[in-house]
Structure formats: structure tokens, C-alpha cells
Amino acid sequence: MARGKKKPPTAPEPTGTVEWLLGTCSVHVQHLMDKGGKRGYRSLFTSDESRKEFKKELYDISKLGITLRPWKARVFQLFEFEWTRREPKVMKRFSQEYLHGRAVNWTTADQEPGLPDQNNGDERGNRTYKDEATDWNRLSLRAWYREHMEWMRKHPFTNQLFLTKAEHIKEDQWRSVQQLLRDTFIFDVTATRELEITYSPFHPPEKATCVFLLSKESYKAIASKHGGERSTIEEHAKPILQNKELLYTGDMDRITSLDDFHKSSKGACMLYSIVRTGAATSCACTCIDYQMKETCDCSLAWDVKHGRIQIPEEKDIKVIGEETKRGGRRKARKGGALTFDQPRFSIPPKAPAATAPPPHPFG
């Protein structure tokens, strides 16, 4: 290759061929756009407006999602092409640092659902440790070791698990799910397909039952502009669901801009039937919430609708009403959900015939 000729963005490792990936915190990558000095990018931008738009684009790309991992190199390529024209100084450096080489794994396409694309939890854990163990004091090795061992005795990590069981789902999410099922046709206007899905960087793709449905934002846009009748929703949903499906079945070359990609990926969600053993729901989802937290309104509502999960009586809005309790937001709970075991995925087995739930595509 001739000197000075730009290499294409680094393609992700084929799924199932690696046991670990060297990740880069997406939040740190985005925050570099705000920083000055030699390490930051702020002084390289032609305007603050352009810098903010660039940072927003980084956020959108960072939430790509594991099922769209095959698109990662193409998305990086489109991003590089568009912004090289607009901010050449920025992209000359950014491409070398975060689109090529080792520091390219800063998206949710590089993680299994529920695992972070950033180290905010670690940063928070570091602060919690200093609050509780050392009280932010600089200690001698002997004094630190004594305080450290005392703190470890009170905080064993051997039994930490993902906080994604149904009993951990918060009241506001239960309320949101019930309102979606009652007030929208999101879970009635769907398209079901059998597709080969990338569900982990560490396992090869597998065949899965996939259900395409409108995102909440798309549904609201259609209902507010055209009306909320089911026939109207079905009419306007069809091309949106088809565009989402084509991301998994169509030619990548048909997407020629980041705008086209985002419209196709954000317009609809896809539920798929491969989940981590012990996950809260029987299906996973491509939405940002699920990729980050391993729970979302879509997957929970789908299981409620098809009888896989029962709404707890104390969370049922028919019983407790719909008013949100007064009071400010609760403070964030210290620490986070941890696990030292690599998540294992499985396709949920069919329910016994005698106790089979209502028809369910993921049965």
C-alpha cells in the first residue's frame, strides 16, 4: 500500500473466534471532544456546533448493538467519509486513534447485552471504595492494608450477579409496560422471521426467531401525525419494519450515509430468542436499554402479553392506580451489578404441552 493512502476502518474480529476483547470506554472517547490541551480534541473543531454534533454522532455509534456487529466496519467507514469532509483535522487524528488499530472496541457491538461499553461502574466503584474504605485519606501500606481487608470482609464479591431478574424490575418500568400494552398497538403490529443473528462477540451466529416491532418513538410519530387506529399504524409501520429487517438480510452497500443507517436502525426494534441463562425475559431486544441493562420495556411487555411473566399484584396499575409516588428521585445505589463468570446464552426450551402458555413465537 502506498505511503499516505488511508486504510479502511478496522473490521471487527469474526464472532466465535475470540475469548476476550480489549475495550475502550465510550464515555471517555466522547468526553475527549470537550477537552483542550494535547490530549483533547476541542481546539481542532471549526465550531462548537460542529463539535457537539460530532459528539452526538459518537454516542449514536457507540449504541450500535451486538446484533449489528457485522455493520461496525461499514458504519465506521461512513462516519469517516462524512466527517473527513467536515472536520479534516479532527478526523485525521480520530481515525488513527479510534477507527483503526487497537482502540476500536468502544461500542455495544463489542459486548454482550447487559455488559457496559463504558467504565462508569468502575469509576463509581472506585469512588465508593474511597468513601467507605479509606475515607479519601492517603495511608501507609500497613494502615491501608488493614482498612482494605476490613472493607473486603464486609463486601464479599463472590456472590455478585446480574440484577436482571423479574423481581428486580422497578415499579416505573412495570407501569410503562402496562401502559404500552393497553394504549398502543406496538405488540400487535409485528413481523416474525427466522434469521441468523450475531448475539455475542465470543460465539458464532445462530438461527433465532426474530420479531420486528415499531420503536416507541416511531409509534408516537405515526400516531401524532396520522392517527392511532390499528389500520393506520399497520400501513405506516410496514416500510419501517422492512428497513430494519434489511439491515440483517440486505446488502450493506445500499446504505450510503449515516443518516440512512440511523433511520433504519432506530425506526424499529427486533426481539430475538437467544438470551443469557437466567435472564429476566425469554427474549432479547436490539434497543439501547436492553443492550445496556439486559432489560427493557419491549422484552418485558412481550413476555407479559404472551403469558411468560405475570405482573406482580403490588405493581399492577389496575390495583394500585397510575399515579407516580410523590418525592424527589432516589439517590443512585452505590456500586453496581458484577459477575466474574462469562454470560452463557441459550435458547429457552419449549414449555410442556400440558402447561403451554398462549401462542408465543419464542416457544
UniProtKB/TrEMBL annotation:
Q: Where is this region: Disordered?
A: 109-128, 323-363
In this chain, composition skew of type Pro residues spans 349-363
At the top level of its lineage, which domain of life is listed?
Answer: Eukaryota
The protein depicted here goes by the name Uncharacterized protein
Q: Tell me the lineage of the source organism.
A: Eukaryota, Sar, Stramenopiles, Ochrophyta, Pelagophyceae
